[in-house]
Amino acid sequence: MRLTPSRGLFVAAAVVVGALVAPVVTAVPANATEYPSWQDVQRAKGNEQTKKTEIARVQAALEAAQAAAAAKSKAALDASEKADRAEAELASATQAATSLQAQAEQAAKTADRAQQRAGQLAANLYRDGSSSQMTSRIATAKNPDQLLYQLGALDQLSSTWAGVMDDASVAAKTASSLHDQATRAEAERADLADAAETKASAAKDAEAAANAAVEDTQEHSDELYAQLASLKDTTAKTEERYQLGQRVAAQKAEQLRKRQAAAAAAAAATPSGNTSSGGTSYPSTGGVVVDPAGAQAYARSAIGAYGWGSDQFSCLVSLWTQESGWRANALNASSGAYGIPQSLPAEKMSAAGADWRTNAATQINWGLAYIKSAYGSPCGAWNHEMSVNPHWY
Predict the structure, then answer these.
(1) How does residue 25 score in pLDDT terms, banded at 50, 70 and 90?
(2) What residues does each domain of the chain span?
(3) What's 275's DSSP letter?
(4) pTM metric for this prediction
(5) Of all residues in the chain, what percent are helix, strand and coil, respectively (each to 5)?
(6) Smallest Cα–Cα separation from 200: which of 296, 291, 83, 299?
(7) What are the Basic and acidic residues biased-composition ranges (predicted)?
(8) How far is CA 63 from CA 33, 45, 77, in A?
(9) How many alpha carbons fall within 13 Å on the CB side of residue 109?
């Protein structure tokens, strides 16, 4: 996957809203979305103007049902990424602390051996703590040759003694320094362990809130699409696809506006290609089924609704293999682009469904609608992807 700052301009339109709302409740709070009733829908059918007003009301409720939700779903994704990053930092700190502790222990053993060697040498040099055997022998020597030999031996032993003492001193200082470093490393590891635990708990709570919100939002969305279908004399599926197309078109228009504004602002700045990407990570987002083969199978079954054949599917495979490897939890660490189609920001995919964070099919539905709106076909998107460097679509 290759994403550039140009891809970073791939932003949501004002009408794009999130996918999740608050956890399931039996009563709607005063400040929550006010959903049209079926009685309202039936009454509106008797008058064309009233029907148009009710359609607008249902559409507004549909968007409002998903409005606060993008934040919940995105919060769960962000919390998961932070928890994974904290866990990785903890693992690295644990490895460093363990290594320093082992080095400190080894240095302490080396210092002990140096001290033992110094003690052994001292025992050879001195009979006791106050008199020197070698000094006595030199003082009583009568043969000049013997005197010179003994003087040389004394000088050699003295040099050896000095070297051994230096070694012992260095080893002791090294052991002390490594012990201090190991102590600091362990303190850092303990702090990171606490942080990792806190972030893991936060990720779990955010995921629970997101999952509850998805269920609630999907329930309301299904009913609202059915109400639109009743008002327009179509089907819920038709209305769902229509609304997705409308929202993606609005996203594309906003994306183009932002990109043009950024291009003008960046004309005198550093070219976007000089900015490095943060690489790809795969957050441990609960509920995500990572199944590239299954995702491709679903995409193959979905492209027919757009009138595309096997040649277009081949381009789609190439496109999303490069972008995400067809992994539903692919996250660009630098830009925040997410999912199989690498939506940026991730919550733009809420236009296709509340479960965009975890559901590959929802991601694919949004991605296909975006490709249709922006490039006309998967091959059009793939040709654009390969025509720019770094690659993006």
Answers:
(1) very low
(2) 88-198
(3) S
(4) 0.60
(5) 70, 0, 25
(6) 83
(7) 181-192
(8) 10, 22, 21
(9) 5
